[in-house]
Design brief:
Blueprint: H1 11-28, H2 30-58, E1 67-70, E2 79-82, H3 89-92, E3 107-108, H4 132-135, E4 140-145, H5 149-159, H6 171-177, E5 180-182, H7 194-197, E6 202-206, E7 215-221, E8 230-245, H8 249-259, E9 274-277, E10 289-291, H9 311-326, H10 351-365, H11 367-380, H12 383-389, H13 394-422, H14 426-429, H15 433-455, H16 461-488, H17 494-501, H18 504-525, H19 542-568, H20 577-583, H21 597-600, H22 609-623, E11 629-640, E12 649-660, E13 664-668, H23 675-682, E14 690-695, E15 698-699, H24 704-708, E16 711-714, H25 726-736, H26 741-754, H27 772-784, E17 790-794, H28 802-815, E18 820-824, H29 828-834, E19 837-842, E20 845-850, H30 852-859, E21 862-869, H31 874-884, E22 889-894, E23 897-903, H32 909-922, E24 925-932, H33 935-952
Parallel strand pairs: 3-5, 4-8, 4-9, 6-8, 13-18, 13-19, 16-17, 17-18
Antiparallel strand pairs: 1-2, 5-6, 7-8, 9-10, 11-12, 11-14, 14-15, 19-20, 21-23, 21-24, 22-23
Bound molecules: 2-acetamido-2-deoxy-beta-D-glucopyranose (NAG) (4 copies).
One 2-acetamido-2-deoxy-beta-D-glucopyranose is lined by residues 110, 256, 259-262, 271-272, 293, 295-296.
Length: 953
């Protein structure tokens, strides 16, 4: 090329330009970035708060092993001692109990106010009268049945027969000589029996009570740390027991059912101690069934099962039968019940290890929609394509974008892990940091690649956001409620789990799950958390996860890059792009005579000599080297394939034109004429169906990347970053065009001055605050920076006020020097002012091409005569015109106003004036005029005739 300053910018120049732009952009975006990175901090704080609330709940003194200040050595000084003896039943659960106390086994005795009495629903004569309830002296009832009443009564009798007051300090004696019971509800363990630890009295169930039958039971606490052993003392009150014979188990069932406290709506309650059915027992056979009240066992609010006071009820009857067989000397005693010893348990619940997996999955997945929407935003706003058209290659774009997202993700994770560790979340502190680093490193890379891949399929930021968040929440929930159950199911085949982990969300879930498991085990059992050596543990899925995410990362990254280049940006690369790279073409210039060309030109419209001439010029240029023409379009054609039953649409029908340097070619044409399709091909957004174009001798089919470096585009809609200033925009695009240092500064300054954005600090205002006109001027400045040889401007002055417009026109007019400009517009004024030549484009082909004067002369061989009269005189006007010019044509007619075209060779202007004077004397003429053709008339004429021709054929 003749201009050595115009070398294509290198990969690193482009990367540098983009990096500088992004840094400025992100600096403006600082608070949003900060919010994102601080999100994990907020979450960690929330977790810590939750944990501390939970801890205080669990460690409230009412739930913690009771302590007291005790004078252990008897010297007056006291020491804090904790243990069973100072605890309530709730607190006992957390004490260290090396040797639990032995409790006398008790019966469950109904409370006095509920004991069975005679009533309307149970009128059995042998039940006591209701009056005993008021005095609290009701006996407890035991129901008995069996096939042999004599035997049954003997056994029942001997169960509760008293043999005198037991020695209260001797537990064996207590058990032998009394039947102890309590109406308290038992606990879920028996470290501290509420019957002894709490207030209600003990009962001694006897057939007969004497006046002095109360005694005190004491249970020594073997674990006591005080010098004198701690003793639990309770007075046992005698309570009369009545054994009532019933004639069958059905009768007992009925009576128990009716007396039930909760089922009885009239609040008439008849509770019964228990019932024994001796079935077919006899002297040689012991066969008994026992009814006991099991309702207590699940009344705990936490859903824990409680113990039941059942052993003594069984022991009583067994002992009675043994004594019936062997005499009263033989005894079978259930001396005590006792829990197993246990350590002190700190009821500490590691919330992160338990809740962590689902929670942290969400936190990390959160980054995915952030990356995705950011990518789709650039696509939706067409900023990506704008950068591409100004020479930004795919490589630098990928490198810088990827690096940016990686930095943000890495910061996010670092803050998360670091802060989580600082506040002491076991999830982070227990596990090896290196494993965590490797896992998170691979995963965030996989996630970013995945976002790049998904971004290809979205063009709308709203859809992308919605889909992104559905992915986040769906993955978390599916992971927590489906995937985890498979992982925990030891029978589920490992292969199935691996297959599910191919879905990146589940791989993440599994990894976090493993961290959670190891830290939970670590905090409850005092093990180490996950270490490298643990990776070979049998059920540890971390190894598999690491392998999967590492391989998927590389795979997804490659596929995303490939699809992005081939499919998405429409850069016109073939699917075999990567293979073509190996063939390494040299930029080919256009001097390759093509003989096929002749056939494709079979039909040439002889009506359009200017178009034919342009076509011949193009052929000439292609055959002979000619560097003066910057744009040469050679029979370029665009056909959109038929879709949904519609026929295929030919948008551009073999267009040939050549634009020399220093010329501005205006493209006029009605909407849908194919102008946009043509421009799209020229700027590399779409591929031509056939034919091609050469920009500075480079073929648009193969050398688009080179062409981008010497091309400028001013799109119809301003594609600007709201938060960047005008100067920053120009600096960025200038760098992309390989401008550096002082040269860049100067170019930007000149550019700003030329579009009148230099003064008053406008250059350093953010583009979002610009008015429409200023944005437009900035877009034009962008298209001109870096001295491009070819510039496309799509309706550059639409929507501008007249002052801004004339300002802009001056810029474009000055910019024409030394470069070729193709400009589309709907404003005839603009076309006439700016363009050296005009092409009118209708139905995909050029109808005429030439400078405005030529066109007007060719298509405007007539005067336009306008006259406005009252409606009744219209015919007279028509007659008058016919007289003046027999071939005149009426082109417009509306409410007395008529427009005629009169061929110039038929009329003389003087005749027209004369005729009008005459007419004025005959009828009232409101207004009249005679004008030469305007460009607008030419345009309408050409467009109409072409469209008529089109509809006829
Ligand atoms: C019932 O049991 C008593 C006591 O063992 C026995 O003497 C009597 O024969 C038994 N009656 C029947 C009908 O088996
Ligand atoms: C049981 O006793 C009831 C009356 O208390 C009586 O109606 C019923 O017939 C008896 N059943 C048997 C099997 O003897
Ligand atoms: C069994 O125990 C429950 C719970 O205390 C009580 O509501 C119910 O009335 C008792 N049933 C009988 C038949 O004693
Ligand atoms: C105990 O009694 C039941 C009911 O009468 C009877 O079905 C069962 O066979 C008896 N058991 C023995 C070991 O005799």
């Amino acid at each position: 090329m003749e201009d050595s300053s115009h070398e294509a910018s290198t990969f690193w120049t482009q990367a540098d330009a983009l990096l500088r732009k992004n840094l400025t952009y992100q600096k403006r975006n600082f608070s949003a970035n900060l919010r994102l990175v601080l999100f994990p901090v907020v979450l960690c704080l929330l977790l810590v708060l939750l944990q501390s609330i939970l801890d205080t709940q669990l460690n409230k003194s009412s739930k913690k092993c009771g302590c007291e200040c005790v004078d252990i050595n008897g010297d007056g000084s006291c020491e804090k001692v904790c243990g069973l003896e100072f605890s309530t039943t709730d607190q006992a659960r957390t004490c260290s109990i090396p040797s639990p106390p032995a409790w006398p086994p008790l019966l469950q005795i109904p409370a006095p106010q509920y004991r069975a009495v005679r009533s309307s629903f149970d009128p059995s004569a042998d039940l006591p009268d209701e009056s005993c309830r008021t005095t609290g002296t009701c006996p407890v009832t035991v129901l008995v049945t069996g096939s042999n009443q004599t035997l049954g009564e003997i056994l029942a009798q001997s169960m509760f027969a008293s043999t005198g007051i037991p020695n209260p300090s001797n537990l064996t004696d207590v058990i032998t000589n009394s039947v102890l019971g309590s109406s308290t509800e038992p606990q879920q363990d028996n470290f501290l029996d509420p019957a002894f630890a709490e207030a209600p009295p003990l009962y001694n169930a006897q057939l007969q009570c004497s006046s002095n039958s109360a005694f005190t039971v004491s249970v020594p606490d073997p674990d006591s740390k005080t010098q004198t052993p701690h003793v639990f003392q309770r007075e046992a009150q005698c309570v009369t027991t009545k054994n009532l014979w019933r004639n069958g188990s059905a009768a007992i069932n009925d009576e128990l059912f009716k007396g039930y406290r909760k089922g009885n709506l009239e609040r008439k309650i008849n509770e019964i101690l228990g019932a024994y059915d001796f079935l077919d027992s006899d002297a040689t056979k012991y066969n008994v069934s026992i009814w006991y009240n099991a309702t207590y066992k699940d009344t705990d609010s936490g859903g824990n099962f409680k113990l039941m006071r059942l052993p003594r009820a069984v022991n009583l009857v067994s002992n009675a039968y043994l004594q019936f067989r062997q005499g009263s000397g033989t005894k079978m005693l259930l001396e005590f019940v006792k829990e197993m010893p246990k350590f002190k348990n700190d009821t500490k619940l590691e919330i992160t290890s338990l809740l962590g997996t689902l929670f942290f999955t969400w936190v990390i997945l959160q980054l995915f929609p952030v990356v995705l929407t950011s990518l789709v935003y650039e696509k939706q706003q067409k900023l990506r394509i704008m950068m591409k058209m100004h020479g930004l290659g795919d490589g630098p774009y990928w490198l810088i974008s990827y690096a940016y997202f990686f930095t943000i993700s890495a910061l996010y994770m670092i803050v998360f892990v670091l802060f989580g560790s600082i506040v002491g979340l076991k999830f982070f502190t227990m596990n090896d940091y290196l494993i965590q680093f490797v896992f998170y490193f691979f995963y965030i890379n996989l996630q970013i690649s995945l976002a790049f891949l998904c971004a290809i399929f979205f063009s709308n930021i709203k859809t992308a956001t919605v889909v992104g968040y559905i992915f986040v929440f769906g993955t978390g929930l599916l992971g927590g409620f489906l995937f985890q159950s498979f992982v925990e199911d030891t029978k589920f085949p490992e292969g199935g789990i691996i297959a599910m982990e191919l879905y990146p969300g589940f791989a993440l879930y599994r990894g976090l799950y493993e961290f959670g498991q190891y830290s939970f085990m670590g905090s409850t059992m005092g093990t180490d958390g996950m270490r490298w050596k643990n990776l070979s543990d049998g059920r540890n899925g971390m190894t598999g996860v690491l392998v999967i995410i590492a391989i998927e990362w590389l795979l997804v990254l490659f596929v995303a890059y490939y699809l992005d280049i081939v499919v998405a940006t429409g850069s016109g690369k073939s699917p075999l792009y990567f293979f073509e790279k190996f063939r390494k073409k040299r930029p080919s210039s256009f001097r390759r005579p093509s003989f096929k060309r002749q056939e494709s030109r079979v039909f040439v419209d002889m009506d359009k000599p200017d178009v034919v001439q342009e076509r011949e010029k193009v052929e000439q240029i292609i055959l002979e080297p000619n560097v003066t023409h910057a744009i040469v379009s050679d029979n370029i054609r665009k056909v959109y394939p038929g879709r949904d039953g519609n026929p295929e649409k030919v948008a551009v029908k073999g267009l040939s034109l050549a634009v020399p340097r220093g010329e501005c070619l205006g493209m006029l044409g009605p909407n849908g004429a194919g102008k946009t399709s043509f421009i799209s091909m020229m700027i590399g957004l779409t591929q031509p169906s056939s034919g091609t174009a050469y920009i500075e001798g480079m073929d648009i089919r193969t050398n688009m990347d080179w062409i981008y470096t010497s091309m400028g585009v001013c799109p119809q809609h301003d594609l600007l970053w709201e938060t960047l200033t005008g100067r920053e925009h120009l600096l960025f695009y200038g760098r992309l065009k390989n401008l550096k240092g002082a040269e860049l500064e100067q170019a930007v300054e000149e550019s700003l001055k030329s579009v009148n954005l230099f003064n008053g600090g406008v250059a350093d205002k953010q583009a979002g605050k610009y008015s429409g006109g200023m944005k437009r001027r900035l877009s034009v400045a962008i298209s001109l920076i870096g001295d491009p040889k070819v510039v496309y401007m799509d309706e550059p002055s639409t929507g501008l006020d007249p002052a801004s417009r004339s300002n802009l026109w001056n810029v474009v007019k000055r910019a024409k020097e030394g470069r070729a400009i193709i400009l589309t517009t709907h404003s005839m004024e603009e076309a006439e002012y700016l363009c050296d030549r005009l092409g009118i484009f209708v139905n995909g082909s050029l109808q005429c091409i030439g400078n405005p004067k030529e066109l007007k002369a060719r298509y405007g061989g007539s005067y336009v005569f306008t006259m406005t009269t009252s409606g009744s005189n219209e015919q007279e006007v028509v007659n008058l015109v016919r007289l003046l010019s027999p071939n005149a044509e009426r082109t417009y007619h509306m409410a007395g106003t008529q427009k005629f075209e009169m061929p110039k060779d038929e009329v003389r202007i003087a005749d027209v004036f004369h005729a009008v004077e005459l007419a004025k004397s005959r009828f009232p003429v409101y207004a009249w005029g005679l004008s030469d053709t305007t460009l607008e008339d030419v345009f309408i004429k050409v467009a109409n005739s072409a469209q008529q021709f089109h509809t006829l054929t």
